[in-house]
Amino acid sequence: MTTSIAPTAHADHQARTSPLRVAVYLADQNPHRDRSLGITSMTRTLMDEFAGRDDLAMTQVISRSSYAHPEPSIQSRKIPFRTDQTLGRVMADAFHPWLARPEVDLWYYPKGYVSNWSTPHRPSIGTMHDTIVQHYADHYPETRSPRAFRYWIELTKRSLRQLSYVMTISDHAADQLRQFCQRHDITPPPIEVTYEGSSWESLRGHRNAKDDCVTHLASPAPHKGTNRLLTFWHTLQQRGHDLPRLELIGKLDNAGQQILASLRGVTQYPPKSMTELQAAVGRSTALLLPSEIEGFGLPALEAYYVGTPTCYVRGTSVGEVVGEQGRAGEFDLEDVDDFAAALAWALSVNSATVTSISDEMHSRFSNTIIANRVIDAFHRAANR
Q: Where does the record place the Glycosyl transferase family domain (predicted)?
């Protein structure tokens, strides 16, 4: 039976007599190669907060190719090879505790995966973001080979069995993990919801002039719903709806390109730098997030931080993030009329309401609050 431990409101971190020594495994994060760039963003934001704390002594375990936090107060142990290719990654995942050998009280795995070829030093804690690999195996089995699905599902199962303690980023994600454990007959470690923050919080209060456009972060990944959104857009144009300009930022698959060719007033842009992306979302009237499964819904948080309301799929974790005031932006995954109603709300909602939603989200998900929750979880894991 899964144990879920509610986060504390705010622990007295300064009262702890000596810093907790934590090794953070970063050698498995190669942002120039990874698809999971959100995890590196989360890691960077957390470590920005950790670097200024006197209740933590951080050591990052990195490789020649991986992400490494630049703060000099964080010690580094470098694995002497690259991990952006299969052999190096497998070797680092399997042998990093012996290659790095930091003297620490706790190991932290931001990606949440434990290698099939090693047993993590205990105590260990990981952030497990979702069970999207199981979702794909169930709904999109054609997207990977059976062998690949077996590998990633077994890796998720092993991680849940081997980690001493698990953090996750929403109640919705915690439910996914519990259902996965029940499905695969796993007795899980304690699971604690710590949520997630964003570096975009530094942009709160800054507002761009709005254009008559809406933005979607396009992706060929089926769960992101890009083709579903383009189909909705086509239907609404056929019905004569007065739609704003739609800006797609990212890539489309072949089916998406075919739908795009039939649309008016839709422009596709390649992936943008972070500064360009923040400006693009900030000047949009709405962010369209038709993803059918999310661990947290970080794009919605970031969009509200720059003053942009979000339309998102009902029943996902995004509703948990935006709160009651933003619920008018949700729509049913298969209902174009429901999507049209959500879009109409986003195009008409006043700036005071958007600011109120942003402020309420920041009160729950500010980087300092998230770091406090995570550090409290570190101590609970270390003390088990």
A: 209-348
Residue 32 has pLDDT above 90, yes or no: no
**Residues 345 and 325: beta-carbon distance below 8 Å:** no
Tokens 């109603």 belong to which residue? 341
- Return the amino acid letter for 251: K
Taking CA atoms, 61 is separated from 27, 79, 126, 128, in Å, by 6, 7, 15, 19
Q: Which domains does the chain show, CATH number per domain?
A: 4-197+366-382 (3.40.50.2000), 204-364 (3.40.50.2000)
- How many whole angstroms from its chain centre is CA 142? 24
CB 75 within 8 A of CB 58: yes
Is the distance from CB of 273 to CB of 200 less than 8 angstroms?
no
Quick one: average pLDDT of 301-308?
97
Q: CA end-to-end span of the chain, whole Å?
A: 18
- The band of 10, judged by pLDDT with boundaries at 50, 70 and 90, is very low
Residue 2: pLDDT over 50 = no
331 φ, ψ (degrees, to nearest 5):
-145, 155
What's the burial of 224, exposed, middle or buried (CB within 10 Å: 0-12/13-18/19+)? buried
CA distances from 333 to 56, 142, 196, 301, 336 (A): 43, 21, 25, 20, 8
> pLDDT-based confidence at 33, cuts 50/70/90?
confident
> Residue 311 to residues 55, 100, 318: CA-CA distances in angstroms?
40, 45, 10
Beta strand 20-25 with 106-109 is parallel
Question: Is residue 206 predicted with pLDDT exceeding 90?
Answer: no
How do residues 124-140 score in pLDDT, each as one tens digit? 999 999 999 999 999 99
Confidence of residue 69 (pLDDT cuts 50, 70, 90): very high
Instruction: Give the number of other CB atoms < 10 A from CB of residue 331.
Output: 23
Q: State the pTM of this model.
A: 0.89
Q: Computed from CA positions of residues 367, 368, 369, 374, in that sequence, does the dihedral angle turn out positive or negative?
A: positive
Angstrom distance (rounded) from CA 116 to CA 162: 10
